[in-house]
Amino acid sequence: MARLQPLSGTRHTSIVFPDIANSPVDGLGLHPRAQPTPGICPEGAFVMVELPREVRNRRSRYLPRAYVSRVSKRKFHGLPSPTPYITRSPERSSMTKEPITYDGNPTADGKGTPDSPHATSSDASSSSRVGTWPRLWFDMLGFRKEDRNVGDAAVVKNNKLLTAIIALLIAGVIVTAIVVPVCVIHGCPAHSSSDQDDFPPGVATLIVSFNIREKNALDVIPAILHQYISRVLLEASNLQILDFDTEEVLQEARKYLAADIDISLLTRDFPMSRLVPRDANTTLSPDQLEAIQTVIGNVGSTNEDTRRRLNAVTVNDPLYTAGNQYYIDRINATGAWKYTTGVPTVIVAVIDSGADMSHPDLKGNMWVNSKEIPGNGIDDDGNGYIDDVNGWDFNGGCTMYRNGYCVACGPTNNPQCVDAHGTHVAGLVAAIQNNGIGMTGVAPNVKVMVLRVSDCMSGSISASKVVEAYEYAAKMGAHIISCSFGTAYTWGFSAEGPAPSYHRQWYATYEQALKPLAEKNILVVAAAGNENIDLDRLKKWGWAYLPCLVDSPNLICIGATDQYENRAYFSNYGATTVHLAAPGSQIYSLLWQNNPNPALASTYGIKDGTSMSTPIVSGVAALTLAVLSSNGGSNYKATQAKDILLASADVPAQGRLSFLTGSRVNAGRAVYEAGRSLNVALTKFAPEFTGSRLDHAVTFKGFKETYYKAVGNQFSQDISGGVVAQSVRDGLAPTLFSAFSGFQYSTGYLVSFEAYLQLPVQGLYSLKLATAAPTNTLGLYIGGKPVPIGSNQIATFNAQGAGWFKLELRVAYPSARLDLTMRAPNSGIYQYVDAVQTSSGPGEFKVSPHSIGSPLNSAWHVHYSKVDISAATPQAMTSATPDMQYQHTGVFESMRMIAGEMKRVLFPNDPSAAAVIGYTSGILKKKEWPHGTRLQVVCKGCQVLLNGLVVIDVSEGITSSLSIAKTSSCLNLRSTDNYELTVRFASAPLNAAALYLSYSEGCSDSDYRFPIQTIALGRIAWSPEDGAKQSRAGYVGGLQCDIYRSANGLPTYFNDYSKAPSWKVRLPDCPADDLNAPGCSGTWNFALKDLLPGLQGKTAAGTTFGVRCWSYIADKFSSGTIDISPADKAEAYLGGIQVFDGKVLKGIPSVANMGKFLQQFSVEWVDVPITTNLVVMDGATPLRLDLTSMRLPIAGIADVYGYDVDGLRIANPEPVGTFSTTVVAIRGDISGILNFNLEKEYDNQGKPLPTAVSAQYGLETEYSYGSMFARRLRYTDFVGFYFPPNYSPQTYTMKVDNVMGATTSVTMGDVTVLNSNRALNRLTPASTDLFQVHLPTFCNIPARVIVKSGMESETTVVKLTTLRTPTDQLSYPDTVWNTWQWAATREDACANGLARC
């Protein structure tokens, strides 16, 4: 039996073998004369083998023979049990194993029983069998059949010649088995120089590949050597990396590999060089050091999202703003940032020396393997790498120490760098932008995958680690691979002849490694090198410069330029091999922090080299991919990105560079060309609004949904079909907020969804329309401009800046569900659109301007019609507008009709009423909304609108048996605005119908709900006495007429209320204007020449005017019909409903429950000549005008605290007085008319206006202007607030004293309370005018007094006083008139448009 023995005092193990020549055949035991023989001796019985320390303590397959005994586990616990015979098959390069037997008795595992050389089988017949020789040998060597059943001695005796031959064969096997491993372990003879030329010396690693992908290199190498070989298979590239424990093992294995007929690649691993000609840190200024140190010290406690302010226009990184990063502007990165700063879904793998992943300017942009759980020691994602969270370190961990020094490197899961190179490179790609520290990367929103390939001792890089990193990068999703390394050459090397043959193998290695990257369309950006070498010449003679010289469609080779746009002195070049350049001299970027409290001088610094140019281009490529993938495409677009980078590069002003394109990269042009290649809408869309929130009256999360009849081309800018229905898609289900389904109409219709998008940064945004509907049925618009939709149903547009953008989505013949999602420039994820619906102005109802925002009382004016049940549809409800003709009208002081009550209230005398359609409107009065509000309605079918915007839609319940309660989204309202609240309703049948509206003081479900009438006021119906008691409006009697001069651009209809009328007149004009003077009356039959004496003589022929006359009148016309003349130029509205459309009477609704209320009546004429009579007929006679049955509300009142309901506010009522301006009358002024609109006079002034604030308490003063106004006709415009001080509503008598040569008009709210129509000249005598107004108590009423003066002196005198009430006269018996009721400040007047400042 062979045995293993340790030799004391040595590191040798004696392996005992039998003496072949004298051994008995039946047992092959030890010959008694056998002695230990050191060294290699094929015929000796003992061989002494030196085993390395690491081998002596582990299982070893070095042992060359089968018969080896187990040794003491105490000293050799790792040695294996006896191994089987090993035979080599000549047909294939593989190893086969056969079971062996011990004394002919196989054990259960086929090995037999060790330490029992003469053991016998329990089988009775075993003693008569051949035990040592397998039957195979009998068949192969020609033994007779009968010899199989005899003993060993008999076999020898019967076959002496064959026995001798077998003995020699066994001896040969033993010699081979001994010599090979001993040679391997102790060293083999040196190879010839010619062999080294084909196979240069180097590390004990081979890179191999076979033509048969499934072939395993270990199957070619004898299994006895496998123990000393580790193998890595790169499946994508079909490369196998074999690491050998010793060079001798490598050489022996190489022989077998080289001889294999399927071998396609066999090369020794070869070194790479990091391409930095020099390292140079810079010294930052003390201020920079202090600022950056402060930030770095706070990084751990600072919220990353707060610090990272993504804005591609303004960059606050100090090294950029100080000009240290000159290369950013040189490559026009800022131009690219106008479109994109990259997206996190673009991953750039940096294959280098690792990176400082805790660097504050980089750590936020580290790629994270989301499928790996950090630190659990498990390969969670099954990719073969444990805990690879941010990348992988392929050779940076020390795996063996000797005498305290690292002597072997291996892989780890922490690619943290220990030098500056990899960190510098990674920072150039993706250093964080706008965090207020350090620098910015070229693509500051992409992610960096860190792959360290430098070893842990010298920092050297080998090709085997690079190609393994390629495999990892492709497997884990990298789209760009940045390679700042290359083949090592001496400075200025020039190829003068063919390269050594191994260069072909090196090239083939990279060619094969890059092939799967090209197939996946991954871009590889490689450095051209820093040896000042002509790479064209290298390529010509077959010298490898890798990876740059590999001819691969996905690889781009990068040279370097200096600060002056010349080729950098060190940069390699080549007119056909180096594609383009990027700055590579004096490049600022990140450096490795040496300790937890780093010296800041080592945190940022300068490096030179194509190693720096390469990540700059990688960053530009990442920006390009962000655009190329913005329309929903893949990020794997290497060839397209490469073509764009080459085509968009710039030739420097100094001339072409010595590269293929002759150019330097241009990031801005690359990004722009990428957009053009996709037909992306790179035309900049400007935001309509900026700011954190829309400054609109109403905002809430939702889409406006409008249906149109499909007519013609529905995707032109204007929709030609009429509106069919209108609804809202609110944000009550935010996860599916922009998922559209359940359309009200389909075939023959088009639906439009409108909302505002808040875009946080400028750049390219992609909208994905995921739907089964054909793309040609979809239309998308930003700011009213169409955005092209690709065949993949993705549209991309370029936002010029952050802000709010109007979005519209149109779908023709809607039926299939549509999911609208958006991807932002700094995000790789499509998310449902968080859109906001808004209304910025008043609603849809055409009423006179005084009533817009003028709440008068808490009553609701309801218009409605009885219809058949079949007519009560969502479409009919949507058409319930003021343009519709209604059968009935009524006023209700509460909008609360419980179930079953609606029919009784609306149709008290008509039990047959089965269905109803109608609407009502009012004003939500001004109040603070700190937490927003939610409206709730209970109805069978209704819509609730704010400022014309649908906020609740209950269209689905019209024909249901029960009413439905529905709540709006959270509504954000301004505290400075009044809101038009409208309710459209339709119910069929009416039996269980309800209508009840409420609101909450916040948006929580737990907030208490209040009846809407507590904050809602009516504006169309009005009770004058109640309005005065509630301090909401005063009043005077009569009809107000406002006249507009058409030469100033009269609107076709009176929907532009921003322009003040030219003149204002109240009718009837009574000399002593008593509030209820029964004798003061007139008829609605007059011409403008009569209202404005002198106008006719000063008006050019053909001049026309616009006239609006309005008042509040009793419940109905006495005759039930009206007629208007001239009819073709008139429109009339009663109670907010159009009753006359310019041609015919549309009908006056019957009145129910009007009671004490008056309803607004207004008539508007356009383009009327000055001599044409304006007539309104009540039956056969003109409508009677008087001061008692017609009332005009004096609205827009502010309370004692200065808060108002009409947009006016007295922020500071002191000093008490009025604010005035004086302006000279323009040429052509009509002496007998006092102008109300003084815009022309102000514009004609040409110099700062004389202004004054009355220092007196009241409006009684004299202003002196000096010679500038002497003898000149002038207007003095006083603005202020009148304050009635009494404790109850009163009728006030007021007096205006006109001096000689002057006339005065007084306006309160929007009503003329005192006309001025005196013929005026310098000799016009002094006069006194009296008038009365009924006013509420303790409030501020906006008032305006205009004095027109032709006095020869340089003064203007105004005196407006109020008659004391009887109560006041008791306190002040000596004074009847007082002037104390006026208050204003200049600032208030200017800010609120009360005066021209």
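the 2nd protein, sequnce then structure:
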Amino acid sequence: MDGGNRRGKPDYCDTILPSSSRACMAQRSQPKGRVPGFQEASRMQGLQRDAESNGIPLKESSFEAAPNPTLPMQSGEGKWSLGVPSSELSYYDGMIQLDYKNGTIYNNEEHTQRSTHITFLCDREAGIGQPEYQEEDNFTYNFKWYTSYACPEIPIECVVIDPQTMEQYDLSSLSLYGDRKENWFAMDNSEEAARKKYYINICRPLNPVPGCDRRASVCEMTYKNAATGFSEVTSISNLGIASHGPVIEGPGRILLNYTNGSLCGEDKAVPFTSLIHLICSKGTTSSSPRFLEIKECVATFLWETEAACPISIAEGDSQSCSVKDPNSGFEFNLEPLASESGYLIMEVKKAYKLNICGPVKDCGIIDGTPAAGCETHDLKHVRLVKLNKTLQLSTEGYLTLTYTGPADRFTVTFICNESYPGELKFVHEEENSEQTFISTYFEFHTALACPPAPVDCQVTDSAGNEYDLSDLSKDSEPWVALDTSKDAKRRTFYLNVCKPLPYIRGCPSGAIGACMKNADKGQSLGVVQISPRAASDGSLSILYLNGDKCKGNQQYSTRIIFQCDQSMGSPVFQHEEDCEFVFLWQHVAACPVQRAEGDNCQVKDPRYGFVYDLMPLSGKEIKVSTDEYDYYFSICQGLITTKCKDLSPKTDVVSSCQVKKQDPSMRKIAGLYTTKLTYENRLIKINYTSGDTCHRVYQRSTAIFFYCDPHESLEPVFLKETEDCTYMFEWHTPFACPPYKSIDCSYKDTDGNSYDLSSLTRHKENWEVISDAGSSQKYYINVCKSLVPYQSPGFCPPDTAVCLKNESKYVSLGEVVEGLRRENGVFVLKYINGEKCPDQIRRKSTIIRFLCDENRVDSKPELITEIEECEYTFLWLTAAACPLKSNVQNNCKVTNPLTGHLFDLNPLKRQSGYTVHDIRNQRTIQLHVCDEAKSPCGSGVGVCLAVGQQQINAGRLSKMLTYENKVLKLVYRDGDPCPANPTLKYTSYFSFLCRTTAGLGSQPVLDAFDETTCTHDFSWHTPLACEEEMVMECSVTNGSTIIDLSPLIHRTGSYEAFDEDMTNLVPDFYINICQPLNPIKDVSCPPGAAVCMVPVTGSPVDIGHIPATPKFNSATNEVYIAYNSSTPCSTNNALNFSSRIIFHCNRGTGLGKPKMVHKLDCEYLFEWSTPVVCPDEVDVSGCSVTDERLHYTFNLSSLSRQSHKVSSGSRNYHVGVCSSAADVPQGRCKDAAVCLVSGKRLASFGNIKEMKMDYRHQDEALILQYKGGDRCPTVTEMGELCVFPFQYNGVRYDKCILRGQERPWCATTDNFQRDKKWGFCGNVTGHRESTFIFKCDDSAGNGSPQLLSETLDCAVTFEWKTQVVCPPRKMECKFIQQHKTYDLRVLSSLTGSWMFADKDSFYYMNLCQRVHEGPSGCPEQASVCRKSHSGTVQVLGLVHTQMLNVMGIVFFFEPLLCQFLMVVCMLF
């Protein structure tokens, strides 16, 4: 529907809909009381719409007509006015009336002014009609006017019964009227420059649309681009009138035929007609019609909706007190109505006690169980009825619950209204003729009985761009909003889009779209009843109103603002403003719907980037029969049989053929071969054209529409034949389903911390991981989403999330099924259903464990274990797994707290400010950002509203910029008092979002204005909010070796380079590799530059631009990167500046830094000595490992002399480092380095003789692995762990059994009789193993192992933070700043340290490296240590925290104690 207006329940069922319609039956008991009634309002709307279509401006508060400017009366030479113009219509007793008053004064004593009274009367044949003079009465001239515009609309029946099956269909839920003032719409995007929009209503005329015929049920609009922007313009005012009811086309297929539209064609001889084919699609409540074509004056639409499904009776679960509508999929849950004490209903001389879905303790016991209700009489409880939780949903939409007793029945019918939990009412009582059975009827009025109104999740903006948010609608579980506010620990937000929330314990039920939960109590934050809106920049918003009471008479509401983004993020809480909660949601589903075409029977979804492939449907000939014809066609190939083949030239390939049943010799070519597919918003089409001639004018063609359906056995269905001989078919098939899967990648823990791993989701290319086995094995991985398609023959299936490439063979290791979970403080993502394991029973699966490491901004996963080529485990140390943080800084600058990236919005300063036109509220908004505001509203005002001559302060300017989960925010507060609530003041919120293509001239856009709180929400797309890295390769291959330069990428700053042979006053150079430079303080390098030269005088110059990838020079055996730029060379205008960096192997623990060597013509040459390009080899000796690249030996011997024990519940792992596990029973776990002790059961998790050590540069971690432990325990073919012993039929078993099954099976819990959980046993041959990940932690000392993960009781992983694996660090001691060189290497000692005394302490200090020969207790990583007279040693600074800077004096090390500054200064 065209979005925005609030929806409510229709009030005019008796008038507009048949009494049998489900939409009316559900509200039969609701009060109407609307004045005027629907028919009267319809007549007034008729006149109103006629005025609107003639361009007459109307007031919102009244219905208006188009009167003459003045009614003059002429008599001889005299004229006088009979009334001044008026457009106020009134209604009385079936008549519409118009009065003109204040005419010429009458010649009487009172000087009465003349007036005119016109009465409009209905005449359906009169057309416009004309007024007739009646008489003058008491100075008033009376006219009557018969016109069809005064006639009420005649509703048509919207219910139809299939005469073959006697099934009833009811389309009335799609009919929009009353408070639902919007219309459905469909878009024609076949020509981007000439988009068309079709407004549609069902079984009745459109709600008023300017320019559309008031009787029309379909109207066509086009888009006109004017100076003020795009606007809708009527192109065909009437494409058909709803004058006939629905027609059955087949089971689950309904046709609406709207006729007598505007005249069509050049000769205007034939009226337009519209055909709407509605197809049953269960569970599809938030769908909308699709435009197919408009030919020969007939517009054709297709609509898949649950409303086209036959009505049926549904019965709920006997235990849950819920029932699911079989068509819509909406679940009615009345469990929240259960009361501890029940409900008491008082009647004359008697009373009833009754509960809903629960017992009433006061009523006593019936048949051994507490009664659900009873009648109370003279303090006695009689007529007891049994508890029953089986709900029934009737064809009329009634929910009923029935309790029965020996001679009694209580029936409760649930009636929809807005109350919650609601009210129970007595209706009446009946007694059968034998007076042996009494039936008592009740009604329960509650919001829980309200079905959700169909809400269209599609919307268009002013330029005709179409959006569809239905991908964000969830059926089984809600979205959980991310929240970094101070209140996040005590509350959780649950959201859904265009659909009610699924059942959430503690939240109110019904059609609510948002819920806030505090502890176990939930509150409704608004009801789903309004379609989305679109702003001019493509920002979408949806509003949920009428939530629970907030304060006073206010109710909670929710506003969700959607922004197009390539990520699949989660909603993020922004702010609360006087009972309204605002969320921001960046997601690819909020991007415009685009039409796409593809060849080779494939087509790519432009939004999600996935490829649909219909080739599996080829290879067979399809036959579809109708009463008169048989149709034969093939998909993406020619017909296989001789049908129609002999009718075409040999050069033509026939793909579709029509054969007459009664005369098979009558064969017609219905379309020639093509492999072109068209895709538009989940609909795929193939069109075979150029068939035989039809009606002497047209050529036959065949159009096949493919819809997603997971069932594989469905066949195509004939839809219709158009006037120009196009044969339309629809085919529901799984091959039209999205060839990918995705899950929510966010999480909120019990402490209120929010996490979002969606930054790890790849959209253009996959993560690639090289295995330890060499480059012949490569893993392709994506996070929370299927892999990006890889254009290689034999690549893994489209729904694969992890794929192994082993030489030229690709193997699926699992697909996305379940969401994130958290174990031992680690996020776990499991992919299952890969290819079969070697045992040919189980299927391959993958577990990825994400561990928070704030220093790993752009890391990759590492393969940790591989069990039997069946179970794969990866570990990913990443900052994305850390809790989300917000950051607030002043001066319109802020840094990302995880990456350190500096955002600076100061370039948005504009002296004249920015102007935003609020057309909806007829206001002009003047605003400033990051600048001293010179506003018409006064000094310091950031947002100023101009409403006519009035100026309103809507918020004072602020430069306090907030970073929160990829969004920058400014808040302007303390505006003028809010007229709707003077206790509030105008407030404006700005959200700055990344859009690289927006340019620096981007403009703010008003997303929403809340009149009740005077709150503005603006969005601003700008590249200044971007932190996106260009996806480019940062590695190069040398034979079978991959050289990865990504450790050299500077994530937060840049590298400084200089020419060591040159003196001062030389250019400064700033360098990054594989991505642009990050913002540099006081240096404005051009955007996108990776190499920037800052001359002594003048602006910084781009001398090397990305993209530029590493290359390998086999002649010199060197790695290099060559950068180009678009900057003209100052010495040769025919050339542009360029740069080249050559990398040399230099072993050591530091990464090195670039050095400017020389300039050759217009190219600058840099050299970089670094261990990153050295061969990655390790040498293991005893309990130490030497990394040749770092040229350093890690020694774990100090840890081997200790015994370690790690608990896992009631079990304990005994751990040895380079030694057997200690403290285990003698003779058990022989040679085990890791032994699991669980009661009397022991298991080896790795043999000391099968020890392996390695150093992983990416994670800066030492890996110790033990393999060859005891045999892995048995698992089922579904990958579940068998539990031994288990109990079956009273017998305990400690192995798989054949009893009752044809194959060996086991229980997956210890008691099968109780839990009934089991699976077929797999063939397990692997052995237990363990992995230790040693991480450097300078403050941990020796540390101790912590359990990280357990996999099927076969593999265990520990994390061990320790000082033992921290390599010594050496920092750069020479730097340039402001074109001057500072060289402090003379102060850096290779063998000793600087030592001096101050008061009661001795200080040991070195520069740029560790303290040598320091006091005992001064660690290797320390640059400054203090030893007191008592012998206590304190670390005052670490090597890697050193920072060099020029501040008048030289100050370094961070952190250092403040009192140490004087000593530092003395050194220089």
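Residues 38-53 form the longest helix (16 residues). Confidence is low (pLDDT under 50) at residues 2-70, 1449-1468.
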